[in-house]
């Protein structure tokens, strides 16, 4: 064995490498068999068994045959031989110091058919120390077969051995890691953009500007400033009215410019698409502030009117509610409540007006209308009650006819059966529908003319001049019934008999079926 490892010039290291691969069997052509014949003298198998026998604690038993493996570099492994009392790390050094132990470290290729048929086995064994003291073979480099091949790569006397192929598994793992990292970066980018995209765009100047361009303002809008409003709610009010481009641009402008401003309640005349700077100038210009104003709509009730009045006047609604809840005699009215006495009109008031002064002004305007229609003071409450029903039941052109139907029924003690009165008493007058629910028609409140004969105990709404005049001057006619047969146009059929009235009801029902969203009923 040591002779094979000499550094004789006749021995070609590359030739030895070639022999190693030439002697490897083809596992595709040979089947494994168990060879129990003794090894041929001088063969590598005999040398390996002899070396194992000489090693202390070694086992000279012939190893069990192994299954053939595909011939690739991964099947060749460095197997350092260690003694029973010596760690594997110390064995190469001891082998270097003791050159006569040729089996101190060996590199084996698993047994193949080449061993069993007597051919030299592809085994490189023994680490010899040359005359110069340098260790050769595999043991000096850790006992790995790759190191043996590497020892000859710088030798120009022969061809280089084929390079070991890289493992595909490692490449796949690396690819998966790279894709995972890229996926994480992309996912994080999407999350960041979805969460902070607007701010990122604004910071980099990519998004749309928050403010309008100067010089494009047009039109006219009214903006209401409430009592106690500061920069943030004013900014929102301007945006909702179409004045500024975004909800926060006006407030951001005040903060950025460090502007301290006091906003006074009231209604301001503004333009659409104003810059934040221009909007502030408009709010500070007294010419753009309308005088304190309030309005009551025709056919409106106190309950429906107070919120708008409080907003437009910049006045607490509690103050106005307390004013209307006061004794009507405070305003020179003989009635149970002030319902019907707040005349429908637009009013302007001087700054600092009180809630009581506002209500008094509206009651006085109703008195003016009653006087103009020739209504006696003692009959004012009755006329206002009839006028309020007329206002809720018909079109202005039909007011005199509606007044006649009411008067004709009152003359014969016939129940008025007006839906508007039943809805008012039940609290559903402003639901936006014509027909009444069964509950409203059956509720025995003092305003339900389906239950009680005669007029309700108070007016049910604020009547206009036309309604008051119609109450005083009904048209001539025998009608006892009327029904609106087309809610879109307000066309109303007046009838003398109940049979004629039912025909009109059928027309109304047909129209409602053809116009389910026309406001015939809540359902």
Account of the protein in words:
Helix content is 39%, strand content 8%. The protein is mainly alpha-helical and 523 residues long. It has a three-stranded antiparallel β-sheet with strand order 1-2-3, with no helix packed on it. It is elongated and about 145 Å long. The two termini are 109 Å apart. 28% of the residues are buried.
What's a concise summary of this model?
Helix 11 (317-324) packs across helix 12 (355-372) and helix 13 crosses helix 14 (399-411). The chain is mainly α and 523 residues long.
Annotate the secondary structure layout.
Elements: H1 13-22, H2 44-54, E1 77-79, H3 91-97, E2 106-108, H4 113-116, E3 124-125, H5 145-150, H6 168-204, E4 218-225, H7 231-240, H8 249-256, E5 266-272, H9 276-284, E6 292-295, H10 302-313, H11 317-324, E7 346-349, H12 355-372, H13 380-393, H14 399-411, H15 419-426, H16 438-442, H17 465-472, E8 481-486, E9 491-495, H18 498-514
Helix pairs in contact: 7-8, 8-9, 10-11, 11-12, 13-14, 13-17, 14-17
